[in-house]
Design a protein that fits this description.
The protein is mainly beta. The chain contains two helices and twelve strands, in the order E-E-E-E-H-E-E-E-E-E-E-E-E-H.
Length: 150
């Protein structure tokens, strides 16, 4: 009695998913994955990613299953897909690989504490700064000051 196992052959590492490698036309899967192309991820069944509109993916660094939000403007944090918001003066909002929010702001605004904030100084603060500069340098010239250094 002969039993043959059918495997999909790989030609290169690119044919193997989730960090698997191709050796002698067979994918060698990393711990936490299996299948002909290493596409089966252990632990996906317990994460229930579909319930929060996410998909189960394999984190090569931690070698564990994780959820990835289907909407690129959201990031998976604490079992939820959190929306990326930088306020009304943002031009874009995205998350980096470490789930840190990156805000891009309209002209005249800068990202501060996760929100696009006005760069200009209030009139009262302008007057105080001009007075301080004039007093320190004994000048009477009026300075235009638009923003404090961040």
């Amino acid at each position: 009695l002969y039993i043959y196992l059918c495997h999909t052959e790989c030609k290169s590492d690119a044919d193997c998913k989730n960090g698997g490698s191709c050796s002698r036309n067979v994918c060698n899967c990393t711990n936490g994955t299996s299948g002909d192309d290493c596409g089966v991820i252990s632990g996906c069944d317990t994460l229930n990613c579909e319930l929060i509109n996410a998909q189960c993916t394999f984190d090569i660094l931690s070698k564990m299953a994780t959820c990835t939000c289907r909407d690129s403007n959201r990031v998976y944090v604490n079992n939820k897909c959190m929306e990326c918001q930088c306020g009304e003066h943002s031009t874009s909002c995205k998350f980096d690989q470490q789930a840190k929010k990156i805000c891009e702001c309209k002209n005249g605004y800068s990202p501060r504490n996760g929100t696009c904030t006005d760069n200009t100084i209030t009139d009262t603060r302008k007057e105080l700064m001009v007075y301080s500069i004039q007093r320190e340098y004994k000048q009477t010239e009026v300075f235009k000051i638009y923003a404090l250094p961040t």
